[in-house]
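hi support,

uploading two proteins for the ticket. first:
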Amino acid sequence: MENFSSLAYPSVSKVLCGENRFNPRHSILNFTFKKGLSNIVESMHAKTLQLQSNSHLSICLKNRMLYSRTTKFPVSLFDFRVSASESCSNYQNNVCCCDGSYCESFQSLNLQNESSWSASEIADATNGEIVKWGPCGTICTDSRSLCHGQWFFAIIGEHFDAHDFVNQTLDDKGCVGVIGNRVCETWGRGFIKVKGNTLIALEKMAKYARNRFHGHVVGLTGSVGKTTTRTMIALALEHLGQVYQTHGNQNNHIGVALTLIKIPASAKVSVLELGMSRGGEILELARMCSPCVRVILNVGHCHMENFGSLEAVAKAKGELLAEAKHGDICVLNADDPLVMRIAVPSGVKKVFFGQGNDSDVRLVLAESISGGCAVRVILEHQNFKLRKEILGRMTSEKVEFEIHGPGLHLAVNACAAAAVAVSLGVSLRQVGESLSKFRPVHMRSELEISENGMKIINDVYNANLTSMRAALNSLKVMDCRGKRVAILGDMLELGVTEADAHKAVLHMCCDARLGLVALVGNRFLSAVEKSKLPEGINIICAQDLESLTPQIAEMLTDNDVVLVKGSRAMQMEKVVDAIKAINSH
């Protein structure tokens, strides 16, 4: 009996299957939608049959190959896809035999999502060999999170070899196949063999995915605000159609590759966040995703242990522009001198955002409202390129909206997102409508209010000097009926600037006149020991979270406003959880 699970209806949310039967002795399969015959749009080049409403499809089966009645060449069974319009979703499928002889039932057609890859597509993309066929499925590189119906791409890293996890457990999870150098002897699912470094094969697959995607690709980088701005860009571009963006923190080599590989066929735009920890990394990512819109948000003290200066950081961020093609759009922060010094290739379109009068998208106003829990924003789009003038003055478009979340820095992120959107033809009015729906990303300027009225600014995802300053400014302006509290963890990867950066944050806390400052980590402890702090400031210090949390529990009261922030490795979210637990009792 043949397995037809690879026949997929990506765009249909539900298919009601009736008497699906298959006669292995005969060759004709008829897929009939009950309301009769209609048009069939066929594209064998894409190996897809698009079924419209009221349609009928007849396919011949021969030697594990499928033939459409109108084609002269076969398509492998596991290469074949069928998609149907939404109006087909309630129709019934019937597979009919050519006579009344013995029939066997076969699996109901699975509903694959639009990010699925067939075995032949994977082999083509990775230059691999199909050792054993498998059905269409999405791609996963983490055996722990693999879901039923996914292909497992076995990556070899510096400290691990994912081939070691190709075992019965993976099979039990519903893995449909492995892409890698080898499989275990008992592996019975699909296997596409690739030679050499599997990370290079993953990159090949990502480039293959990028080349077949014909929508807009936005690539952005910066020292702070990448994830928030990426989320805002995705919102601002929603008027262009479906937008697919980086999930979570997948902004490294593997994450960017997976984002490209998972772009659904129906997407019109993809927004990719590009991170780095060393020179040359942004260039590699830019070559992989080949963005048509390239965004540099800012240059700050980030990963300084691998860079000798801010100028070196700027050079690394500038790699995003190095190979920009004629007609590409480069969106740049006009308020950041280091960004403005980055060389921009000729033939590209430059779009500037910022507070200056020469910015294409200008931040006219940013003010805290709702007791510091939101930001009122006014943006202006000045079309310098078209030079449209009325009564001797250039026309411009303005929009006013509110961003839900604490911190004026959100207005700058919104300005950057607006610059991307208007450069792709979205009106500023539409941008305002979209960005008013923004909510802070988890653990990034996320405001949580407990039952007893305590406000927690959960900004624990990461920290450097620039983001610490922005977070403390948010704390200062927030309405407070108790005391303002900053609970801060060490800032990591700052290199030679480490000591000065931690001292600078201490002085910011003193200037803000906070009711309580709680510090955790050896770097902050060292800064306290070496700094002359004014009398009267209430500071408690601890080397680790375990010793800090009990002290905080005794000092917090109802109606306090608490900022929690630190580098990712400090795991400051544990402090947030502890505070919530206190307030739940």
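and the second one:
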Amino acid sequence: MHLFYKFIILSKPPIHIINKTLNFQIKMRKYLLLLFMVASAISVPTTILQDTSSEELLLDTTTPSDEISLVEDLTEESIIEELPIQGDVIAVVPDIVPDDHSCFTGDHADQDTLQFIADSNSGISQSVIHMAERDFSVNLIKGIFKKFENEKITENIFLSPSSIYKTLMLAYIGANGKTKEELQVGLGLQSLTKPEILKAFMMDLAYQAVREKTPGLGYEFKDASRLYFDQTIQLNDCLKFALNTQMTSVDFKEEPEKTRLSMNKWVESITSGRIKDLIPSGYIDTSTKASIVNAAYFKGDWMSQFKKSDTKAGNFYITRDEIRIVKFMSQQGSFNYYASQELQAHVLELPYEGEHVSMLIILPPWLDDGLQQTVKRMTPETMQGVLAEINSGFYKSEKLDVKIPKFSVSGSLELSNELDKLGMGSVFSADGNFTGFLGPDETAEVKFKKAIHKSFIEVNEEGSEAAAATALLSFRSARPLFETEFRADHPFLFLIYDKQTNTILFFGVYQYPPSP
């Protein structure tokens, strides 16, 4: 078995999904419904093209029939010649079903594996995972910020909780025993079975593949994960089948440095060159058995751009007694803006083109410890409330004067200690159990020793560019003082929020501008 599915991009949307495998097993065709439902969910016109009998392909009732047309007996070449294709052709090339179905069926060996994959309730699992991911984001940033409770602020913070979460979720898929239990609790996945989580992960992969190739969104967002295993290790056939495009065999034992450079090159390509050398020299050696890497990249233009001519120097107050001169971007426009009672902070939404993704700026009261107070009040529940209020659209200010710094932040974090604080310490200990990745006869041990995360963001007049990669190895009133002005001239939190999936892609704290 070589691959489960792959995408061959030939032109631009609408999307045409081709089943070009002869004698394709009937039940296996249902997996294509994952892609159909994703395309339909974001209103992408979809054509299913297949060269086997269409009589046995049963379309899921959740797929709108008016959005799908079925064309028989066409090869890829004849499709290009005979159809007036105006968009992407995605060729889905499936392979045989593995004998080992355990990663889909879990303890229910008698369950129909492919029926389980095609069931339409994966949206419920995805919603649970997306909520758990938001909660994880808040808990992680609170844990990292603890160091500033008793220490002077000397740095900015920027990371991608989404990238870190996806990396850990991949680790969970191969975890067993205590490690599995810790990850399940730490990632907030107690209500789901591992097969349900795997299926939701596969659905997200399909959704992301469609979104990345859909033009006209107004932004660029790439998110990809890879599991690297030494080529001598026998891997679980079911997971090889389900995660084929994410699993790669490499030669850690004989060529560790070449492998490290290749892994870094992959991250660099996903992040458009913004994240370089994610894995430092010496982190990969001949004893390395596995590594999990996630990379994410976002670039978007503001829906309402700032004029460069309006950018002026001004004071940024780290504290009332410590001031830095920074460049402030200014504009007047219509924005979602409200004061959060729970956070006791002002919240501004700056949407990017396409309105699927926004930057939220959370501005604490102007006190020397205002940022610390807001972070202490920040919980998964209060952040859920903030996002709900922003999405309601009830807080539109038609003539708001906005003034925010023009800035960039980059950083590198070793996350093992932070994840230990969140109850996932065994992931990086000698007791880490990842036997779920291994075949039944494999005796080698797979351990992860470190979690490395690098990130970058640039915010300017046109918009924002952000990238990240992770490897395992006293507020008197809730009303703004000036309802027509939002001036971020003291430390604030900011996040890039994906409205499509209701998740936090990137999270940061801007509190310490560089010296002039």
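thanks. also noticed: DSSP finds 13 helices and 19 strands in the chain.
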